[in-house]
Amino acid sequence: MAKPEKIQIVNDIAEKLRRATSWVLVGYTGMSAKEMSTFRREMKERGLEVKVVKNTLFLRAIKLAKLDGKISDFVSGPIALIIGYGDAIEVPKAIVSAQQQYEPLTVKGGWVEGIVCAPEMLVEISKLPSKPEMIGMVAGAFLGPINGIAMLLGLFLYALVDTLRQISEESAQQHLATDGGASQMEVSEKVRSLFEEIKGLTLLEAKQLYELLKEEFGISGVSIPTAVAPAVSTAAAVAQETQTAVAEKTEFDVILQSVGEQKIQVIKVLREVIPGLGLKEAKDLVEAAPKPIKEGVSKEEAEQIKEKLEAVGAKVEIR
């Protein structure tokens, strides 16, 4: 290959590495041409790019792209570069999944949002939720501890507005919005700055923040409220209704939080507890953890599923 062509290839790879949110180096020795073609097509369908590259040219490219870390340690034998420009978790998730289909495919290492990752770390990253989901979990962690306070405050505001309306309906209509005026409050600079900081977190930073919040406030299984409960005239009435609803709950969701080390056994149990579940669907469920595996079941059935999965090392939550 002529020197100008090599320079162009190096420049192209370096530019792709700069734009990427994540990439993984894989070895493909032993894969047939047909398998490689299918693999390329599957990655393309997921919005990822596959590029077979010579080791020397790749090493020049990472130097040109000024990437830190011991990336050169991953470069040995024939290599292919899988690049993603969207959600950083997509490349590790796609490659870990592809390894189950293509036995010769070996993960050498990768790079995720500025962090150099060994194969073991890429497997752990592949289990994370997407960045939007992780940001949602962080938001839920913030909201969880103050949910009860927020409900009581909302009830208090409702009662206050209702009283003022009775004293002077006309005056209330002029000065109070239907939500008690809360939506008209100007967002403080501090809150806006915090919002922008959270929105700009990387996937791994969002996970770290979520874990810190869970540890600080003792939160587990955070869910994000999606609607406001109907207002009632007194806080006592709402408390009574809430206690009754909890006591009468008859349907539960089973959430597979993590798989553990016995992935094959977990897949077998999933196919056992979910009638008609195919092998591919079971594998997809495992790869997508944390994820609901059964919804709206009785408490007894939910506990049976939890017991069977935890017996093979999985972590399960019932909500």
Could you explain the architecture of this structure?
- The chain has 13 helices and eight strands.
- It has helices spanning 3-19, 33-45, 55-64, 90-101, 119-126, 131-167, 169-175, 189-199, 203-217, 235-247, 263-273, 279-287, 299-311; strands at 22-27, 49-53, 79-84, 106-112, 115-117, 252-258, 291-297, 315-318.
- A hairpin with a 2-residue loop joins β4 and β5.
- α4 packs across α5 and α6 packs across α9.
- It is flat and about 70 Å long.
- The N and C termini lie far apart (61 Å).
- Mean pLDDT is 76; it is low at 167-185 and 221-236.
List keywords for this structure.
319 residues, alpha+beta, Alpha-Beta Plaits, Ribosomal Protein L30, Chain: A, five-stranded antiparallel beta sheet, 13 helices, 14% strand, flat
Q: What's the CATH class label of the largest domain?
A: Alpha Beta
Average pLDDT, rounded to a whole number, is 76
The CATH H-level homologous superfamily of the largest domain: Ribosomal protein L10, N-terminal RNA-binding domain
Structural class designation: alpha+beta
| Helical content class | 55-70%
What's the oligomerization state?
Answer: single chain
Number of domains: 3
Kindly report how far apart the N and C termini lie. Answer: 61 Å
Q: Kindly identify the CATH topology of the largest domain.
A: Alpha-Beta Plaits
Number of alpha- plus pi-helical segments: 13
